[in-house]
Amino acid sequence: MIKKNRPVNILLIEDNPGDVRLTQEAFKEGRLPTNLDVVMDGVEAIKFLKKETPYTDAVTPDLILLDLNLPKRDGREVLQEVKTDKLLKRIPVVVLTTSNAEQDILKSYNLHVNCYINKPVDFDKFFDVIQKIEDFWLTTAILPTMVD
Questions:
Q1: How far is CA 146 from CA 9, 12, 72, in A?
Q2: Sequential DSSP letters for 5-20
Q3: 8-46 pLDDT, tens digit each
Q4: What is the pLDDT of residues 97-126, one digit of tens each?
Q5: Among 1.10.10.10, 3.30.360.10, 3.40.50.2300, 3.90.1030.10, what is the CATH number of 8-140?
Q6: Is the dihedral of CA 134, 139, 142, 147 positive or negative?
Q7: Count of CB atoms within 10 A of residue 109's CB?
């Protein structure tokens, strides 16, 4: 369980700078203190999560927000690696993507994603989605303690 006296650590895996900025702003407007780390592709995501160079001092995230369509290594591959790694598999992963393709939804759940959310293109709706993620995943749900 996350201690209430520390910020929640979130890893955003997103290659669109505009979506990164919106997500950062939405969490700044949130009620809870968060540390939002950002990586822009699937290769960097795995390096971050496994604390490989240059991320040797990275904090294990309490929650991962994952886009599916990433350069170098796509989000499906990242999700599969996270959910099959004994040290990472307990980290809740929320797919936050523009894809609403049934095959992407099914594949994500088959790979044990915790939640699949279609990313809105409208600014206000995007903020609303991030607020709902905060409300549920960071306030209502009880997350496991991630030990570094």
A1: 10, 17, 27
A2: TSPEEEEEE---HHHH
A3: 899 999 999 999 999 999 898 888 889 999 999 999 999
A4: 998 999 999 999 999 999 999 998 888 899
A5: 3.40.50.2300
A6: positive
A7: 13
What tokens were used for 16? 């669109």
Pair of tokens at residue 32:
């809870």
Domain spans, the chain: 8-140
Cα–Cα distance for residue pair 86/67, rounded to 1 Å: 22
Sheet of 115-118: strand order equals: 34-39, 8-13, 63-66, 93-97, 115-118
According to DSSP, the β-strands at 34-39 and 8-13 are parallel
Prediction pTM value: 0.92
Q: Are 78 and 70 in contact (CB under 8 A)?
A: yes
H/E segment holding residue 64: strand 63-66
